[in-house]
Specification:
This protein has 9 helices and 20 strands. It is of the alpha+beta class and about 600 residues long. Among the domains are: about 325 residues, Outer membrane protein transport protein (OMPP1/FadL/TodX) (Porin), CATH 2.40.160.60; about 100 residues, Roll (Membrane-bound Lytic Murein Transglycosylase D, Chain A). α8 crosses α9. The longest helix has about 55 residues.
Length: about 600
């Protein structure tokens, strides 16, 4: 009697297909899109590849591993399951994958300012800090194009095929993407399209499983996701979840058969010449533990592998394999032998071909290796050093601009004082003070730090905190209220190691009026008392007028010191503090809110 149609279909092709299922330990209990593995290298490691995931097969095992792909890679596999089955079935697998690093090229113009040396004529032009910055921008510029490349992730593609000649064909299409989420964390996602087709015959077209011949295949879509952590140098942890949406893969539209969701986790140790990995897979109440190791020899041109696994539903196997690598090409081979389940077969065999192309990053250093960490730190150090050099260069250029500006202000101030002395009726007979000329060689700079004040800076650079007005007069634009200065401000320091500003003004010749240190009122000044212009010298006989009224006395001058007030000045020069109004009336144009700034030269009326 002829067996039933369903039994006839299952007895021959499905039995052989389920044999492969039992051997590889699929995470589902039916022959629908079973996990038969990909890549001879991964199979030689016992299928433990979730944590390792360092080549294009990461598309299949853990898409987050694509982020660590060093170069572009294309690979192809071919495998035979359970060679020499008693029924002569030819159960084969094929896999193709590709990983391409995505690089974004960016270019911009870096403006490099070349501050040319100011000429003597340019240094005579009075400018402010703001106008100095404008002048610097108007100087010669050079635009240098800077191009750099940024890694934005890796795209992957995979195609897996499992077929039983004359019975069925199963295909899985994968489109994946992985990238760095953090310095030590990578993430990835794979979109999968599942397709399966059966070869119907006169018996199967009547089977209700195939809707009486109306349906010979199925099409479904799902997704996998994964993470990969570089938890320490050379140590990786991988996590992957498969079949996120659990699609319905029933042939009959009225049926409901959801694909099981799988959970995988793996640890990996990556050395330059040694890799070790272990995985744990869980799905629908079942489990599998897989482990493997590989050792490279002869400068990574030859590798040997050994692995195995065990789990629920009598899953036990041992695996081994080897690799030959030369240049950009690598060939891998693996054999998987079942310890339980199918007996009498010669095991399953898989061979893979891999070709790598594209630029090698960081001289092909192993991801997660100590050498790679050192190389990255060295690159960061070089970058910081370049930024520091650039900052120092900009600081030096800014100091030159500030010095030239200060010289311009000094020259302009001297010209203004000379002009005032030449047109002032009250001082037309008195020679103008002659300041000692400044030069760029004598001008120094000081970069302020937190807690600095003008007095503390003067104490540090001159040894006398009373000389702070000299620093203030050259840096008014950079000094806040009450003489406060911000940390990091570049101040100009005039004449370090020379006399104070008050001492730089030379005294008039002996024959001129206005000799210093002669008091207006009777009595001699105390030793060390400064800032007064005292009584004029007696005129020489030949200079005395012989006729006419007596010439009115010439006014004196007083340089305001720190802490001076009009009443204290009047007490010093007149001996009477109540005469401060006379000084005020003669110097209204030099007063600000009734006060005279330190360093101001006041006219002292003589009665």
């Amino acid at each position: 009697m002829r067996p039933p149609v369903r039994f006839r279909f299952q007895a021959i092709p499905a039995a052989a297909f389920l044999a492969g299922l039992l051997f590889f330990g699929t995470p589902v209990l039916r022959a629908d899109f079973e996990d038969l593995g990909a890549g001879a290298r991964a199979m030689g490691l016992g299928g433990a590849f979730v944590g390792l995931a360092d080549d294009s097969r990461a598309v299949y095992y853990n898409p987050a591993g694509l982020a660590g792909l060093g170069r572009n890679e294309v690979s192809a596999d071919y495998g035979r399951l359970h060679v020499k089955l008693e029924d002569g079935s030819n159960l084969s697998t094929g896999y193709f994958s590709m990983g391409v690093r995505l690089i974004r090229r960016k270019s911009f113009d870096e403006r490099v300012r070349d501050l040319r040396k100011l000429s003597a004529e340019e240094s005579q032009v009075p400018v402010s800090i703001a106008s100095a910055a404008v002048t610097a921008r108007e100087l010669e510029k050079r635009s240098d194009p800077v191009t750099f490349f940024k890694d934005v992730g890796t795209a992957g593609f995979g195609l897996s095929n499992t077929s039983l000649s004359g019975a069925l064909s199963q295909n899985t299409f994968l489109l994946s993407y992985g990238r760095k989420l953090h310095r030590r964390i990578a993430g990835g996602l794979s979109l999968k399209v599942l397709h399966k087709s059966y070869t119907l015959d006169s018996y199967t077209v009547k089977d209700p499983v195939f809707d009486h011949g109306a349906k010979s295949g199925l099409l479904a879509a799902t997704a996998d996701a994964g993470l990969r952590f570089n938890i320490a140098p050379k140590i990786f942890l991988g996590i992957a979840v498969g079949n996120l949406n659990r699609p319905n893969i029933a042939l009959n539209p009225a049926g409901k058969e959801n694909l099981s969701r799988t959970f995988k986790a793996g640890f990996a140790l990556k050395e330059k010449m040694l890799n070790m990995a272990t995985d744990a897979w869980v799905w629908n109440g079942n489990y599998q533990l897989r482990a493997g190791a590989e050792r490279w020899f002869r400068n990574r041109s030859l590798a040997l592998r050994l692995g195995g696994g065990f789990g629920s539903r009598d899953f036990k196997n041992v695996t081994s394999g080897f690799s030959v690598n030369w240049g950009n090409t690598q060939i891998d081979y693996a054999i998987v032998y079942p310890v339980s389940g199918i007996k009498g077969a010669y095991g399953s065999h898989k061979i893979s071909f891999t070709y790598r192309f594209g630029k090698s990053p960081l001289n092909e250093l192993e991801e997660g290796s100590v050498e790679l960490y050192y190389a990255k730190l060295k690159d960061e150090m070089e970058l910081l050093k370049a930024r520091l050099d650039k900052t120092e260069d900009e600081r030096s250029r800014l100091e030159k601009v500030l010095v030239q500006e200060a010289l311009s202000r000094i020259h302009e101030k001297v010209r203004a004082e000379k002009l005032e002395a030449s047109i002032s009726p009250s001082r037309k007979d008195a020679p103008a003070p002659r300041p000692v000329p400044f030069s760029a060689a004598k001008m120094k700079t000081y970069v302020t730090t937190r807690g600095d004040t003008l007095q503390s800076i003067a104490e540090a650079v001159y040894g006398k905190k009373e000389r702070w007005p000299e620093i203030y007069n050259l840096n008014k634009e950079n000094v806040g209220r009450g003489g406060s200065v911000k940390a990091g401000t570049v101040l100009l320091i005039p004449g370090i190691g020379t006399e104070s500003a008050g001492d730089r003004t030379e005294a008039a010749p002996a024959e001129d009026v206005g000799r210093t240190l002669a008091p207006i009122v009777p009595g001699r000044p105390k030793a060390g008392e400064t800032g007064m212009t005292l009584a004029p010298l007696p005129q020489r006989p030949e200079e005395r007028p012989r006729t006419g009224p007596k010439k009115p006395p010439e006014p004196g001058f007083y340089t305001v010191q720190k802490g001076d007030t009009l009443t204290s000045i009047a007490q010093k020069v007149y001996g009477d503090s109540k005469r401060w109004k006379e000084i005020y009336n003669a110097n209204k144009d030099k007063m600000e809110k009734g006060l005279a700034k330190p360093g101001a030269v006041l006219t002292i009326p003589r009665n």
